[in-house]
Design goal:
The chain is α+β, with helices and mostly antiparallel strands. It is built from four helices and nine strands; from the N terminus they run H-H-H-E-H-E-E-E-E-E-E-E-E. The protein is elongated, with a radius of gyration of 16 Å. It holds the Pfam family Ribonuclease_T2.
Amino acid sequence: YRKHEWDKHGTCAATLEVLNSQKKYFGKALELYQHIDLNGRLLKAGIKPSSSYYKMTAIKEALTGFYGVTPKIQCLPPEEGEKAQTIGQIEICFTRELELVNCMEPEGESNPIQAHFKFGTSELSVCNDSLPTYYPSELQ
C-alpha cells in the first residue's frame, strides 16, 4: 500500500523540497492527518461512528464549517434491502504549498473511480446527498 501511494502521489510531490523523500512525504502526511483530525471535528459536530444514520448534507456542512473548504466524500452504495449508504473515504485537499483547498471533481466525471478505492466487492463513488448515511468507525 505504501509503495502504491508513493508511486502514485509521492513521486509527484517529490518535486517539492519539503516532500522530496519517502520519509518526508509520509511524515508530512501523518502530521497533516493529525492536524486535520477528521474524527475529532465530526465528533464536535455531534457526528460519531455509530449504527444511527446522518444526513450527508449535515456531514458536509460540519466539515466545510471547520475547514472552510469542501471535502470529497465517497460512499459505498446501500446493500440490497438497505436504505443507507456508508462513508468509505473522506478526502481533504491541499495545494502544492499545503494550503487547504476545495476538492473538485474532474471535469466531465461526476463519479471518478480509482481501482484501489475498493471495500469488499463494492467500489466507492461520490456520496448521494439524499440518502441516509452510516458513518463507520473505520475510515481510510
